[in-house]
């Protein structure tokens, strides 16, 4: 079963994306490089609660 998580930009802290997290990687936090509309550039997005 997968769990829905929210991704937030590291620089401006805006919550831009949602993604699913599988059972195998539930113990680690997700770090993905995505485009942030608020910053206007590609930044690292981190999983939030």
Automatic annotation (TrEMBL):
Q: Which GO terms describe its cellular component?
A: ribosome
Pfam families in the record: Ribosomal_L33
Keywords, sorted A to Z: Ribonucleoprotein, Ribosomal protein
What domain of life? Answer: Bacteria
The entry's family comment says: Belongs to the bacterial ribosomal protein bL33 family.
This protein is called Large ribosomal subunit protein bL33
Organism expressing this protein natively: Evansella tamaricis
């Amino acid at each position: 079963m997968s769990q829905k998580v929210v991704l937030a930009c590291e620089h401006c802290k805006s919550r831009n994306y949602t993604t699913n997290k599988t059972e195998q990687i539930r113990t680690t936090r997700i770090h993905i490089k995505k485009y942030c509309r608020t910053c206007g550039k590609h930044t690292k997005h981190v999983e939030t609660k």
